[in-house]
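REVIEWER CHECKLIST
Item 1: Sequence provided? yes
Item 2: Single chain? yes
Item 3: Sequence as submitted:
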Amino acid sequence: MVVDWQASPGEEAVQDLIEDESAALSETESRVIDMGADQHGERLDKALADRVPEFSRSYLRQLLEHGAVQLNG
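Item 4: Structure as written out by the authors:
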């Protein structure tokens, strides 16, 4: 599974998701993450949190809900 997401602080929907000003992104960010077979069947927010520990599971779930995460694979 390949996951790709983009978050831009200029987008109002993403800006609303940021609860702590210190966690605000300074620029648009795009990441591609390859998920292993060991993560098959896991909730996507949990699998992402394992791979991107600097973001909370709650924040990642909100990105998912707002369509900021693309799943290809």
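Item 5: Key structural point noted by reviewer: The first strand starts at residue 2 and ends at 7.
Item 6: Recommendation: ____
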